[in-house]
Amino acid sequence: MRFQRGCDPESNGAKLIDSHAARGLPAVVGITGPMAAGKSTLAAALGGLVISTDRYLPDYDRLPEHAWDLPESSDLARLAADLAMLRSGRPARIPAWSFVSHSRTGEEAVEPHGRSVVEGLHALDARVRAHLDVAVRVDAPREERWARCVERERRGERGGTIEQVQRGFTAVAEPTFDAHGRTNAAPAHFRVLPRLD
Prior knowledge:
Elements: E1 2-5, H1 13-22, E2 27-32, H2 39-46, E3 49-52, H3 76-87, E4 92-98, E5 103-110, E6 115-119, H4 126-129, E7 134-138, H5 142-154, H6 162-185, E8 190-193
Parallel strand pairs: 2-6, 2-7, 3-6, 7-8
Antiparallel strand pairs: 1-8, 4-5
Helix pairs in contact: 5-6
């Protein structure tokens, strides 16, 4: 992957993070992009406390398929409140969500960290963005992303079948990002693209 600066020439994400760290304040980075674009990989590389927006998904059995990943179906108000607590130096209890049962499975206590990274389809939603210092958009070609989905499923990471993943990719995740994620991601400070070798 390679970094490309976003459309805001006055923004410098690294300086923002360093400035917060120098003052002993937490910095929060948001990373969005379509399914399997590399959001969680980049989040892990940045380090710190990583929170996936998947944790705030609804129980899928309560909703029709097309609504599973819509922003209004996710508890983004709670995500924003949890980030506000962590930014203020207080611990938070965040949801746990299972890709096997497609439902909430409990909660997990997390402590504030010098750097928190929020990654997921709705990481730059307006409610969440109010608590971010740096916004990043990750992109990759659809064919490459689909290949990653297949490989991830073959490793058994999400407990489904290739057919289930294909339906989720084409009928749920892609339409949701096209309808909502792209607009939210437009003003990102940085864009991350596949490396061109």
